[in-house]
Amino acid sequence: MVKIAVIGGSGVYNPDMLENVREEVVETPYGEVTVKIGTYAGREVAFLARHGSHHSIAPHKINYRANIYALKKLGVKKIIATTAVGSLNPAMQLSDFVLPNQFLDFTNGRVTTFYEGGDRGVVHCDMTDPYCPELRKEIAALGKKLGIHVINGGTYVCTNGPRYESPAEIKMYSMLGGDLVGMTNVPEVTLAQEAEMCYATISMVTNMAAGISQTKLTHQEVMDAMAANSSNFRKLIMALIAEIDPDEDKCDCAHILESVGGFKL
Ligand code: HPA
Question: Is the Cβ atom of 226 under 6 angstroms away from ligand 1?
Fold first, then answer.
């Protein structure tokens, strides 16, 4: 059973940390998903490149429901996602790793739920702790052990993209309490919560957000920043795969929909 998954965002496309990698096509009610599955430290791990292996899927076109459903179908209990983010918070600087604990959703036109009526009905899932507090704690502790600076907590503002933001938008997000800005965490996190999986995102600050940065923002700058820090990303993720217990159940994530019979495949 594959119990741990890594969803790689911008700059994290290859599961080269895994051994004996095979490709599996998983059928879901929302379409097919190709997942790479390999082993590390004796554990089977699923790897999904969110934007495709050649960064060809725009944030608003990603089939989030199919991706999360496919991981659930494989047996995944814990998801570690990576994202590139701009920072609105001077305490979160270039190359810092941040573990968001809250989000603000500024996307539009995305399906953010498995529960839109029909066979599944309408369910209102709790989002008090959208990012698993236990998983975040474990990531932060491992970061400390490895000497990698990890900030545990921050509000991730999800924009629709694919364009970057205007300085006026960034100012507004900042006034609303946003710390980081990216384009993909919603609905990935909300769907993972509905599917009763532990989900945490390691966000890497690739730039200060528009209007805070002294220069205009380019995708190349984001990719270069990711590449410059990829060895720390790799170290952290490999250590996590080896050390986290996928069956540990101290949090509410796996039971969030218990009162309505749980998430069903
Ligand atoms: N805005 C939105 N998404 C991003 C940014 C940004 O500044 N940097 C990396 N992803």
Answer: no
Protein residue with least CA distance to atom 9, ligand 1: 85
Q: Which of 201, 240, 262 is nearest to 41 (CA)?
A: 240
Query: What is d(CA 182, CA 34) in angstroms, rounded to the nearest whole number?
Result: 24
- Output the CA 85–ligand 1 centroid distance in Å: 5
- The DSSP 8-state label assigned to residue 10 in this structure reads T
- With a CB cutoff of 8 Å and minimum separation 6, the contacts of 79 are 4, 5, 6, 7, 71, 192, 197, 198, 199, 200
Q: How far is the CA of 159 from the centre of ligand 1 (A)?
A: 9
The structural architecture, per CATH, of the domain 4-248 is 3-Layer(aba) Sandwich (3.40)
Instruction: Give the pLDDT of the chain (265 residues) as one tens digit per residue.
Output: 899 999 987 666 667 778 899 999 999 999 999 999 999 988 999 999 887 767 678 899 889 999 999 999 999 999 999 999 999 999 999 999 999 999 999 999 999 999 999 889 999 999 999 999 999 999 999 999 999 999 999 999 999 999 999 999 999 999 999 999 999 999 999 999 999 999 999 999 999 999 998 888 888 888 888 888 888 888 899 999 999 988 988 999 999 999 999 999 9
Is the distance from the beta carbon of residue 180 to the nearest atom of ligand 1 less than 6 Å? no
**Cα 182 to ligand 1 centroid, rounded to whole Å:** 5
Distance 105 CA to ligand 1 centre (A): 14
Task: Parse the chain into domains and list their residue ranges.
Answer: 4-248
